[in-house]
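Forum: Protein Structure Q&A
Topic: Joint prediction for protein chains with partners

I've read a bunch of threads here and the consensus seems to be that you should model interacting components together rather than docking separate models afterwards. I'd like to see that in practice. Below is the full input, 762 residues plus whatever partners are listed. Could one of the regulars post the assembled result?
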Amino acid sequence: MTVSEVRVDPSAHQEVRQGAAAGLRHQPIGELVLETGVAIPEVVLGYESWGQLNADASNAVLVQHALTGSSHAVQADSAEPGWWDGLVGPGKAIDTDELFVVCINMVGGCYGSTGPSSLAPDGEPWGSRFPYLTLRDSVRAEARLADALGISQWRAVIGGSMGGARALEWAVTFPDRVGTAVVIAACAASSAEQIALAQAQVLAIRQDPDYRGGDYYSEAAPISGLGLARRIAHISYRSETELADRFGRTAQPGEHPVSAERSTEAWRQRYQVESYLDHKAAKLAQIFDANSYVTLTEALMSHDVGRGRGGLAEALAAAAGVRFVLAAVTTDRLYLPAQTLELAEAMPQSTEVHWIESDIGHDGFLTETAQIGALLEAEGL
Amino acid sequence: MTVSEVRVDPSAHQEVRQGAAAGLRHQPIGELVLETGVAIPEVVLGYESWGQLNADASNAVLVQHALTGSSHAVQADSAEPGWWDGLVGPGKAIDTDELFVVCINMVGGCYGSTGPSSLAPDGEPWGSRFPYLTLRDSVRAEARLADALGISQWRAVIGGSMGGARALEWAVTFPDRVGTAVVIAACAASSAEQIALAQAQVLAIRQDPDYRGGDYYSEAAPISGLGLARRIAHISYRSETELADRFGRTAQPGEHPVSAERSTEAWRQRYQVESYLDHKAAKLAQIFDANSYVTLTEALMSHDVGRGRGGLAEALAAAAGVRFVLAAVTTDRLYLPAQTLELAEAMPQSTEVHWIESDIGHDGFLTETAQIGALLEAEGL
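Posted by a regular:
Agreed with the consensus. Here's the joint model:
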């Protein structure tokens, strides 16, 4: 299926989001004044939770999603699999028989929290008016949800990729509220390369004429641009070896890329890896909101835990009392293992980097749940 | 300068091409029947040459350009610098006092050879009607130009990146016509990852509404799409370290990426690495034709020297009499050093891989002319 074959109903985002998260709850947290000074009134955070909070609220764990992730980390009794089912659940490494696990949709997202597709106070979607925000803004919003839930300290804040960056920001912003921060496949600051790749993704969306500057909710969604952004991102999520081993130069069955034949769109026929990326693109474009993709990607570009805090070492000094568990995927070429090592070396407390052995690349933080689970058990979480 | 500030006159491509190549000559080579069976009538190849062909035509060297390169490898007495001035010229490693050096614009390109922006027999630009072609087609076209010049054997065929792939194809297609093949920062076959990155670039152009399926020559050129393609490509041409060392997270002077301020396009303000990529994008979009970018990128996707020849080892066996000089850039993450090693190992003749030491990444084949020159001199070219 090519992305151009996908026809998305303008209202589909909302429907899919509602369908995917049967256990989704909403917590109003009031006005959120952002780092930039801009205020978003009446912010709501969508979240899910599993397990029971104990009497002294000492068993709460916050699981942080990555860029296009949702609050749906665990399937539980919903229809939709969770993105970390291998790690979180009854009897799992993050054991919901003992722990109260919370996963919050990031502000700016499209899975239940206030974001560009939400209605602004005037009753129209925010669209292009939704303000620029940072990962720090999201962490401060989440602290208010923790307040509402009666959680003064998380036993652990755990995440991979952007979720790892958010776990790190939690530890540095609220060191008294984080027992252990588990930071997987993430780094201290988005690098020049990460910014460059993010820019290409954001431009892919903004240059789609259906984007209309962000005000497309009553029209066709910019699925071509969002699909291209996803392709660019997904290549960076997988290792060269993984793509070579899975696809090589094989043609998509029934197609002949080295031929005069063209597809129905008058484009050249495809290699299998192209069809794979077309599928990834179409899948995301059906369920994700392009404005949220832009908002969260730009928030990730802002990530620099030392920014405005006197640099990395000084920022980390504030979190000297937090226990850190750091892990990197051996073949990650987006969040380089060297970046996790740099983060570890900058910490005042002695912190080891654990290795997630995987050929898959960055996405190992999603797929290698057995290794991550074993690590968390060894660390006594 | 952001890409959206660039205003390209529809006729600018042709003007720039004419201006850049004062020494450009044109050689008609007749009808070219492509690998697909499709024929292009009345093909013309644009080329430049430096030095004098000797009496027995034994001093001819073919220099092959990369994806967006032109025939203008050497500045000589033109106004425009050549892309390999450090390597080719009087007294240089490829010494035009002794050698007759030829550089041919690839068929499908936009620097003087028949391509999508050329006029078809009906007097209109080929546009969307220009056929899909392969690197092998380009090599067979170039052999006809060699015939016309009276060159039965090149002393050497030399190229980097796509130029290296074309040098390899020359050696395997016409082993009796190549003394030495110098293959730099290239591989035996475009990998799944290279295909994936190429697809993203091609889609960036095809999804630009100004592309109009390829028939845009009487309208505005699809500069936004071409610029995005260039950004995606350029990130892959440079190493993570190079981008980190040059730009880090520095903001573009006068801009504030972490702020509520927006640029004139109502987009977020930029990091320096974004401005750098904007500049690269605008520069290419002003001088290159989007259809040629698609045509040459798809030709590069077709690259597989073993395709239809019984596999790599059998294909290379045909070129057992050719001397090969292989070189890889140590930090190349697009044409991985491992791929050059694989190519060397598949050769029947003993072939060493030489290392171009550079922090820059793939583009080392363009920038490290001193090392390449020393290698060629050591090899006695």
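Chain B touches chain A through 59 residues (CB under 8 Å).
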